[in-house]
Amino acid sequence: MSRMDFAVRAMTENDLPAVAEIEAGVFTDWYRMNRKPQDPLPERSIDSLRYTTALDPEANLVAIAADGAMVGFILARTWGRVGWFGTFGVPTQFQGMGIGSILVDHVLDYLRPRADIIGLETMPESGPNLGLYSRAGFGVTFPTLIMELSLVRTADRYNGGDATELTTWSGSDAGVRRRAQVSIREISGELLPGLDYSREVSVFQEHGLGETFFARGDSGRLDGFASLRTVPFRSQDTSGRGYIHILAIRPGVDERAVLHDLLRQIWSRGASLGLTQIITGVNGRYRDAVALLLDSGFLGVRAAIRMAAVDSLPDAFSVSGGVNLSRWAG
C-alpha cells in the first residue's frame, strides 16, 4: 500500500473518544484474525484513557490525516528511568502505510532521553508487530505469564481475616501517604535500577481505579504494596475480574509472608465487591515470583512477549530475584 500524508501530535482530551473507537476496532479485527471470531470489543472508557495518559501527557500521540481524521495513536509512560509504550493502533484499512513505524519513532524520541530501559509487550501472534519492533531496535526478553486467581477456589486460603483489617492508601492520612511514596520508590528501585512506581501509584489513586494495599513488617516499615484495579478498562465489562496493576515486595524480607498478606487484603476487597477472579502478569525474569504465585493459588492462562530496546540497561535481559508484578502494556 502507498504511504499517506499525516501529521503526528500530542494526544488531547478531545482525541480520547476517537482513540477509544480505533482501539476497539483494531483489537476486534486482531482477535478475529488471530484467535477466534467474537462480537466487537466494547470501547475503553474515557476515564480509563484519562488515567492512562495522565502520567506522561506528552508521550501519548495521535496521527492525523490531511482531512482531519485520526489514523493512529500510541500510548507511553515512564516509571522513573524505565519507559515503555503500548497500546498503539492503526485502523486495519490504514495499515501498511508507514503510520505505525512513524508513531513508534516519535514515541522513542520522547522516551530515549528519559529512560535507561525502554520496553513493550505484545501478543505472540503479532508477527508484523514483532518485525516492526525488531527493526526499531528491540529484542525479545523473557515472556510475561498472565495468571489468574479464583476467589472462589482460594476462599479457604485467604478468607478468614477481618475485612476491616486492610492497610490502604485511601485509609491513610497525608503524612502516611508521603512516607509510603518514599518506601515505594525505594522498593521499586531495589527491584530494578531506575524503576520508580511512586508517581504511578498516586495517579492510579487520583483516578479512582481501585485501591493500593500496604504490607508492613514488625517495625512498621513498608515491606510491600499492591494496586488492585477494580474499575474495568472497557465499558460494559461484566467479567467479574479485578487486576493487580502493580505488586512489589522489598528484597530481603520474607516474600512469602508479605505476598500472603497482600493477597489476603486483595481477596477481601475483591470478594466484598463481588469479583470472582484476580488477574496479574509477572515477567519470566522474576522466576522466584512465578513460583510464589503458583504456590499461592494462581494459574497460568496465557503469555505475552516482552521486548526491550537492545541498548537498554542489561538488567532488562537478565534473570532476577524478587517479586515485581506489572505489565508493560497500556
Helix/strand layout:
Blueprint: E1 6-10, H1 16-34, H2 46-54, E2 61-65, E3 70-79, E4 82-89, H3 99-111, E5 117-122, H4 127-135, E6 138-140, E7 144-150, H5 155-158, H6 174-191, H7 198-206, E8 210-216, E9 222-229, E10 241-249, H8 255-272, E11 277-283, H9 287-295, E12 299-309, E13 323-326
Parallel strand pairs: 4-5, 10-11
Antiparallel strand pairs: 1-2, 2-3, 3-4, 5-12, 6-12, 7-11, 7-12, 8-9, 9-10, 10-13
Helix pairs in contact: 6-7
Please describe what this structure looks like.
This protein has 2 domains: 110 residues, Aminopeptidase (3-Layer(aba) Sandwich); 172 residues, Aminopeptidase. The protein is 33% helix and 27% strand. The chain contains 9 helices and 13 strands. Strands 1, 2, 3, 4, 5, 6, 7, 8, 9, 10, 11, 12 and 13 form a 13-stranded mixed beta sheet that branches. It is globular.
Short description:
The protein has 330 residues and is an alpha+beta fold. It has helices spanning 16-34, 46-54, 99-111, 127-135, 155-158, 174-191, 198-206, 255-272, 287-295; strands at residues 6-10, 61-65, 70-79, 82-89, 117-122, 138-140, 144-150, 210-216, 222-229, 241-249, 277-283, 299-309, 323-326.
